[in-house]
Design brief:
mainly alpha; 4 helices; 0% strand
């Protein structure tokens, strides 16, 4: 017979680990395709070419990549903490 608390703790770990992996995938995606980060700029596609060239999409991509990587690290560490300390660690992370 399995322990329900153990199952719930494993569920929080898996959920956090999957969230972390998704954040890492997004970080890699925006690093490889920096022009795709333009969706964060309001009406970027409707701007004239001169105004589009004023935006630093490489810099914005690096910033988004760092933010997603930080979120991934927090989620993965929270997942391991959820195994050690229970579901409260999941909510803290």
């Amino acid at each position: 017979m399995f322990d329900l608390v153990e199952l719930v703790n494993n569920m929080w770990f898996v959920l956090n680990f999957v969230e972390g992996l998704l954040f890492l995938i997004f970080a890699v995606y925006f690093t490889v395709k920096p022009e795709k980060v333009s969706f964060m700029i309001t009406n970027f596609e409707r701007l004239p070419r001169e105004q589009r060239e004023q935006y630093d999409l490489q810099g914005l991509s690096k910033h988004v990549c760092r933010a997603f990587t930080l979120c991934a690290v927090i989620c993965i560490v929270g997942g391991f903490a959820a195994v050690a300390a229970g579901f409260v660690a999941y909510w803290i992370s």
